[in-house]
């Protein structure tokens, strides 16, 4: 017999007003609340001419390192002010070495230079940092970071008190750099920034920084010079700088899965072998260096979430529209092992709810 | 620094003061007038080239727009965004009593009651509309007493144990007529509680429109609590654990566009090569997605097929499962960026967002490849997402599973059936990328299990959630961008702000105002669209390439750079001007003396 229903009004309309506030106030503390989503690297070599071979080798060595540790080309911006590999004075054409044993060719496969030659200018560099490009600039030349990005900025070349020389003709001042970083922070273009500078009097270049979330290390303090490591008598010039040489030595022992900390990197520099004091500043950085793995800046670990299940939205819809016949499964015969979606049936515990029989998926599991 | 000085010509002493008393117009005087004209012109040219002049006259109106920015920022931050909506609840009891027609009556009253907001009502408040509805529904059903199809469908449920969620959902949708609910301000969400004695646990189902129902044995107070919690969990938060808006699940680019880049990766073409019929999929499966997400983002679709794209993580052979296994620990290292050249889109502008949706076909050395979850089970979807990057699905084709040989020289096409399955996973992953759940069921400790009907890719209430969140996020981004812009402009008073930037700021402010008004009217779609426009304009204004602070030096810097060029020349010009002035003074003195002598 048909049952009939008694009925009561449950609630009289509840007008609910919801507040969607509060993220505005977190602008200052955002570095602690946003998640680390990706890693970027900006590697800049600012010197031209053959005798500055070592700066090119420095930058290419670091490029190789960050690629090996996982940062993809699309998130690396490589700026090389001159071409050493195909320089007329290069005895080994198309090869760049950072060691006199010539074991490693830095200019081997998959080197993608984004800014080359005369494109490496102070203006372009600041445009990359602030994001103010002309409309036609391609995506590979832009820094497309977001508020969860960790950025590694490595600069090498000739520098001095509060400046870095570009192309032997112009200078990047420390206050320009500080201003660009400030604008980046305001626009939330990074979560954390690590600046590594390998020039003479490197520490003066980041002396004017004020933005939070920035960590900086330079190869020498004010009044000190940074020196090259060794001279390659075959190539005829110095092939690597001391600071970068010891940095690479630290990284050669690491791979993608390791988690050595930043403090171990920073304390690995010995002033006696460097012949200068590697100075770093952590006053703008909230986290403790012992807790920060180097792969946070030098490598890249993607954040991943696995997908629970497919979303069966259009079993009927697709067939109606496309008017194709249901194709038979390509696997024939006897040894077919199939998985029925037992898990979904378990979750829907209500016995009265009859779920439509789900088609077998393309995942096959051995029926044990 | 310099003002152009007028130097009057003066005639030579000899024939300067002739008897007829007029000022000389002889050749020498013409020469002197010329001299004055030349010196005047020279000084004017010098003055024009002077870089230290004040440029304040060139700034124009652009700076004035920036005052409005502060007003908007305050509007958003001090007065938070209020989204008006209405929740209604209906309790249905299964038991002897008046027949179902009463249900319609009371439903109608309930609806009216929403407008009246809490006043009590009685049976006389039936509107013509409800009667019309009752008649319509009664006509459909064959049983007596004007019973509605609800009755009959629930009867069917009783008898055969079969229950069709979809039909019930459609039926409820026809009852709860939403077209006239907008007048009340905001959208109306309805929860219906069906009390039945036989049931042990209460389970909730949320339909694809703006209503849901709970079936089970609950007391009235419990029902209220359950309704509220299901409402918050499903309608307000859209299934997320917390209601906060993190930028991690907002994959919309700064110009309001998303590019969905579909990639088919053949890990080793020496084993087999696969291709797909993308056009068919684009027309059938992707067109609805674009339609649904239109207010939230402008989506365009691209696809490519790549070869020689091995993954960079390792997998091991599992004897029990008879396949190669990779675990969730390997997922962060799966994407091999050296070999996978995914970001080759030419259509995506500098500020659009690209989401890479990848189908990975493993090579013969690791086929079949399955994802094992931490609890030991095999993943049903065989895929994963990376927020703000995209997603990957591993597809094992049937031939590799039963070990049959494949012709390696032929390009095989993925069958429609397999494509459909892959795209079901993609839909789930796309939902995850937007922050919704990928499957149609989620657990909540307070309200038990909540099941979503999954016949559409996005339920309307889910689109509401997305619209609201994106509106808030976009408006917030817009205000922070405009605020940064105004701070930047104020810190560099000598920077030239182009008219274009001022216009963009104005458009952005207009769009933001219209978004705010749409929010208070409760129109979610329009508010999402205008907030997107507001953000896009504000980003265009902030990232205008002309605002490079390196071009605008401080006054001291300018002075220090230019003074070695201009000071020496300036010295000479100054001296010359002084000499001319002295000469004029001398001559005019002489003229006065002559005039006095004459009188």
Describe the structure.
- The complex is a heterodimer of chains A (368) and B (599).
- The longest helix of chain A has 16 residues.
- In chain A, strands 4-3-2-5-9-10-13 form a 7-stranded mixed beta sheet. Chain A has a 3-stranded antiparallel beta sheet with strand order 6-7-8. A two-stranded antiparallel sheet of chain A has the order 11-12.
- Chain A starts with a strand and ends in a 21-residue tail after the last helix.
- With 368 residues, chain A is of the alpha/beta class.
- The radius of gyration of chain A is 28 Å and the shape is globular.
- The N terminus and C terminus of chain A are likely disordered.
- Chain A contains 10 helices and 14 strands.
- Chain B has 599 residues and is α/β, with parallel strands linked by helices.
- In chain B, the strands form 4 sheets. Chain B has a 6-stranded mixed beta sheet, with helices on both faces. In chain B, strands 7-5-10-13-12 form a 5-stranded mixed beta sheet, covered by helices on one side.
- The longest helix of chain B has 44 residues.
- The two termini of chain B are 43 Å apart.
- Chains A and B meet through strand 1, helix 3, helix 4, strand 14 and helix 9 of A and strand 1, helix 3, helix 5, helix 7 and helix 8 of B.
- Strand 1 of chain A pairs antiparallel with strand 1 of chain B.
